[in-house]
Amino acid sequence: MNREEGKEDGVFMLACNAKEEEPAGVWYIDSGCSNHVTGDKNVFTFLDESIQSEVKTGDDKKHQVRGKGDVLIKSKEGAKKIIDVYYVLGFKHNLLSVGQIMQKGKDVRFNDGFCVVRDKKSKLITKIQMAQNRMFPLKFVYEKMASFNAVMNNESWLWYHRYGHVEIMLDYDEPKSSHRPRNTTSL
Predict the structure, then answer these.
(1) Which terminus of the chain is less hemmed in, N or C, by CB atoms within 10 Å?
(2) What are the Retrovirus-related Pol polyprotein from transposon TNT 1-94-like beta-barrel domain coordinates in residue numbering (predicted)?
């Protein structure tokens, strides 16, 4: 791919059998798709709109890439980040590229009507049953990033932080481990 001047060149292959727009949060694991892609700008936690390109689907239709960024989703283990997702204006489906998943060191296997994704240590990430349309839908709940400002009137808090004491108890009845920040990993 050519990244000069914010442009990327490439052929985008897509094989999608869905007939209508999918409900929010449904993504498909797609072995015919060369890049993660969505047409929903609202799901991005970061979007570099300087990335402009044109991609072609399997039916020879051309679509405009209007940016590339990150999508944050919730999982049982905490927040997970899907990186390098193309934003394609007007695209009706959300697709996860098997190739991109594998480039991140994940193992993707299709067998007995399931798509199984494992990490480098063979830990199960997800197991998706094939739908009636022979696709592998995955339902995500999106995680939104937020930032907060806190103003403390007591100067002892300021000194507490200056000395590197960043662990603050929000409720003294709960164990410290319940207030640890969640790590994010990429898919």
Answers:
(1) N
(2) 27-105
